[in-house]
C-alpha cells in the first residue's frame, strides 16, 4: 500500500493543489446549491449553470430566484431572462414583480413588458397598481402650495376661498405619457375659479357648493392624465373680502388724483398767465414813462423855436392843475401824477 510518505513529492504536491482546487470549486458551487434547491422545490426551476452565469453577468441570483418563485406561486410565468434583462436595464425587479402579481390578483390587465416600460420611465409601478385598487385623495391646493385656498370672485364682487379634495385612481393604460398629479390639481383649481366666477353672486355658490363639483366633473379634467377622477368634493368654502368695492374705491381714488393733477395744471397755467399780464403792464408803464420823459424836451424845443409862448405854457399848467384838483375831489388819483412823480 502506498503511503503519503512514500509518494513522490511532485505527485503529492499535485494532489494537494488538486484538492484545494476541488475545494474551491465545491465552495463556489455550494453557494448556489441552496438557491437551485429552493427554486426546484418551489416549482420554479432554474438551471444551475444559469445561476453560475448570473454572477459573471453581475446579476444577483438570489434576487432573480426569489422574484421568479413569487411570480410562479401567483400563477405568473416569468423566465429568468426577463428578470435579468430588466435588472441589467436598471429597473426595480422586485417592485415590478409585485406590481404584476397585485394587478393579477385585482383582475387588472398588466403585461410584464408594459410594467417594465413604466418602471424604466421613472414611474412607481407598484404604487400605481395600489392606487388603481385603492383610490387616493389629492388635496387642492396641495400641501406644498404656498396658498392654502383657491380664491375666486363671483359676479357681485365677493371673493370666495375654497378647498377641494379630488379622489382619483390610476389609469394603467395612460400611465406612460400621462400627466401627473400637478396637472389634476391645476385643472381642478381652474375649474373652481371658472365656476365661481360665472356665478351671479356668492350666495348662489354658498347655497349649492356641490354645483361646483358637478360643473368641474363635466369638463373631463382627467383627459390626457394618468388618473381617472372619481369625485371632486368641496371640503371648505369661506367668504372673503369685497373685491368689487375695493376696486371701485381704488378707481375713485385714482380718478381723484387725476382730477387733482388736472386742476393743479390749470391753476399753474392761470398763475403763469397772470404773471405774464403783470409783466406786460409793467412793460407798458415803462413805455409811458419813457414817452413822458420826452415831453419836457419837446416843450423846451418849442420855446426855442417860437412855437410855444409863455402864456400858452401857463394856460396849459392851469388846465393840468385844474384837472388834478377835480380828480382829487372825486377821490381818484391824477392820471399823470404817478408818472410825473416817477419822472
Task: Describe this entry's structure for a reader.
The protein is an alpha+beta fold. Among the domains are: 20-133, no CATH class; 136-246, Band 7 domain (Tetrahydropterin Synthase, Chain A). It has 13 helices and 4 strands. Strands 1, 2, 3 and 4 form a 4-stranded antiparallel β-sheet that branches. Strand 2 (150-153) and strand 3 (158-170) form a beta hairpin. The longest helix is centred in the C-terminal third of the chain and has 63 residues, at 243-305. The chain is elongated. It starts with 8 loop residues before the first helix and ends with a helix.
Question: Which descriptors apply to this entry?
Answer:
alpha+beta; Tetrahydropterin Synthase, Chain A; 4-stranded antiparallel β-sheet; 4 strands
Task: Catalogue the unreliable spans.
Answer: 337-343
Rg calc: 54 Å
Mean pLDDT: 80
Main β-sheet, in a few words?
4 strands, antiparallel
Oligomeric state of the chains present here: single chain
Give the topology string: H per helix, E per strand.
Answer: HHHHHHHEEEHHHEHHH
Question: What structural class should be given to the helix and strand makeup?
Answer: alpha+beta
